[in-house]
Amino acid sequence: MKDPENDIYAVADIDTGDRRSVLAPARASFSEFLLNEAMVPVGGGLYAKYSFAGREALLEVVKVIDDIIGKNILPDAEVSLAGGAQFGKTILELNLAAFITGWQFRNFGLYLPDDDLVEGIVDSKFRPDVVDQVGWFARMVQVGKALNKSGKAVNRKGAFW
User: Fold this and answer.
1) Lower Cβ count inside 10 Å, N or C end of the chain?
2) What SS3 state is found at 62?
3) Residue 41: what pLDDT?
4) CB atoms within 10 A of CB 96
5) Cβ-contact 81, 91 below 8 angstroms
């Protein structure tokens, strides 16, 4: 009889269960993430599930994003979002950041023209509307905490990991 503690095959057959430290729900696409995880402010400090109602123009944008990052139809493509104000682009970008970094573990960059705008986006949109609303993502990420080369804490609101 083999000793299971010393038999590599017996050890390999042991089901250790799900050992992730943060149990993020499986989402097959960015659109599925948006409709199941993302929240949007509706006023009075309240939030509701993300919906494409009133944002119908973004359906095609999200479909292309899913083709690029989910289905890998366009393997060498990059995603860039640009445009005017007040059509849902910022909340789409910030939720894409959560999906890309927190679920797919890919790199993400959001380029803004100055530090004041970065701090404004982090304080007024990213932290309250994404990080604080997607519980599993909040447990995975730290916003604005970094150490410099000498080991001292510095404010880096524009960075999260």
Assistant:
1) N
2) helix
3) 92
4) 22
5) no
